[in-house]
Amino acid sequence: MPSRPPASARTSKTTPSLLAETHQQTDDKKNALTTNHGVPISDNQNTLKAGVRGPALLEDFVLREKITHFDHERIPERIVHARGSGAHGFFQVYESLADITKAAFLQDPKIKTEVFVRFSTVAGGAGSGDLPRDVRGFATKFYTSEGNYDLVGNNIPVFFIQDAMKFPDLVHSVKMEPDKGFPQAASAHDNFWDFASLSPESMHMLMWTMSDRAIPRSLRMIEGFGVHTFRMVNAQGVSHFVKFHWRPKLGMASVLWDEAVKINGADPDFHRRDLWDSILNGDFPEWELGLQVMDEKAAAALDFDILDPTKLIPEEIIPLRIVGRLVLNRNPDNFFAETEQVAFLPSNIVSGIEFSNDPLLQGRLFSYQDTQLSRLGGPNFHQIPVNAPRCPMHNFQRDGLRQMEVPKGRVNYEPNSFDTGTPRECPMHGFTSVPEELDGTKIRKRSETFADHYSQARLFFRSMTETEQQHIISAFAFELAKVETKAIRLRMLGHLAIIDPALHTGVADALGMSDAADTIQPAVQPRDLPPSPSLSILNKAPSTLQGRKIGVLITDGFDGALLATLRKSAAKEKATLMIVAPKVGGATDAEGTLVEADGSLSGSPSILFDTVVLLLSAEGAQDLATLSSGVDWVSNAFAHLKIIGHTPASQPLLDIAGVRPDDGLIPLENDKGIKTYIATAKNGRLWQREPTLRRPG
Ligand code: HDE
Question: Looking at ligand 1, which atom is closest to the CA of residue 79?
Fold first, then answer.
């Protein structure tokens, strides 16, 4: 039987003495905790009971309200793109775009338009890790002076399917298998590859999702695309087709697949944390907006249909016009209120920007509005602060669930003669659609102009560097090895054979499946298009350490002066330097000064850094060489092709970790060593090391 509480607790109404040591109360009414209806609360620790050891009373409205609210804290997660991270910022054009659009926010470089951006993965649930192999959503809400404009894009310029009708099938196939409830956030399973291999239109996009684009290093280092062709219309009514591109100022970078797998365990919030921290530290992520603009004639001259969302326009054919910049400079105040409740609608456009007839886009114009009704509980989600336009809005839509406004007066219709001050149509400034001549037969059929499913898949593969091609082969091999049904693997190999013989052989070898792949008859024979080097990440990789992380491993007795020089050099490059020590308390340098660590050896594995430095003393190196966490730290850095700076005393650990000398190992004896280290690390990974360590399979 529990012992009786002391008498003081039994008699006191407000002081729960069992918690007295840590308990915080106020005498100030202004600060008092209240119920949702404003009644001040005297005790937030205890239920109202019939006697201190008696049953709870139903009349305890304080408890019931608190628990009821808690029970309803979650809203349905997004069916796709459930896992996301958001940020506030602004967009600004470099020059007026009046020649192509009348959109108010694109007229003047002095105009800074507030934005909210949400990045996301697609397949996993809201609590899934940040680094599955997946497409990333890149959705931007521009709060313009003429209404909200939402550019709801991805980090890949093409899509899996050509018609909205197929979206539920695609998504069902990639998500957890419905009987098993797994795999979570992974396309590597039978259902997905069954659907994909039966959908030749997905071939081009599959090349992208199997490429390094699908495992980005940071959300700050992804490109973004509007995917569909849109229109821009100027004040004279002249219309152009446009494709939207976001270009990251930090350049693109990806992790390796082996790192992705490990990062999901070591830090499932890797991308979300990186975005948050960089904004917190004032390193504001930035993108430039690029447009591919073409008139009807130029569009008609392309060798594919611009309404087909599985195709891209190589920049070598229509170059990008760089028109402005997007800066993210403020973290959300509240994740739920903003990032979770933000409702992007591709149907949110403003005067000067219009849709095209892309059948995928047309379906999206319905879906997003519809999905918000179940996610946000009714038709008034535009009143939620993150969704509300910053410009005036008034109409006669009334009532409905979650109505927050209190419209005044008797007039709730138009036309009306009671109040001339109520809103009226505005032909002069109101949104009008560009008059497009349409004439067609009612028909449920795919256009013949959408039939070539392989040429651009081949174009993509042949535009990659050798290293990137190997990664694509490895990714296909990894995914297909998880497919249990052999017939699906053989069907997929049949498609790869059409895309490129080297791709097919590479994957078949890696799978150890040289049996005949299925013979697939393409609807249209693929053509050899000129490669587009600008599609490669590595071809465009900048030489920089900006936004990158240097992990410096220290042990007691390390060289403090060397660390100081390294810190200075890292700061000059705008890189983040993080100290890792066997214990997070830190390590003392040779002079006896304690340097606190940012992370411990096991908590901050080398996979979390872009490049590493071993600043070890002789004893430290000997000691770490006996620990698996020390050996893993170094062998992983080597296996992940990182540039490794090291003191000569670190050699025993390098040896035990199986590190073989190459151009990526930089001895740090003095300042010159640091210079060489920085110059080498700026180039990213040592790709030449890869074939000596790994082969697809
Ligand atoms: Fe989406 N998509 N989608 N999508 N999509 C959603 O809308 C849908 C497509 C994209 O951060 C949903 O509010 C259909 C292409 C992003 O909140 C849903 C089709 C592209 C986001 C929906 C597509 C996207 C979504 C789920 C085929 C790239 C996250 C919750 C016709 C251009 C936005 C929601 C955010 C979200 C439907 C295809 C991008 C279910 C029916 C193509 C970035 O309405």
Answer: 26
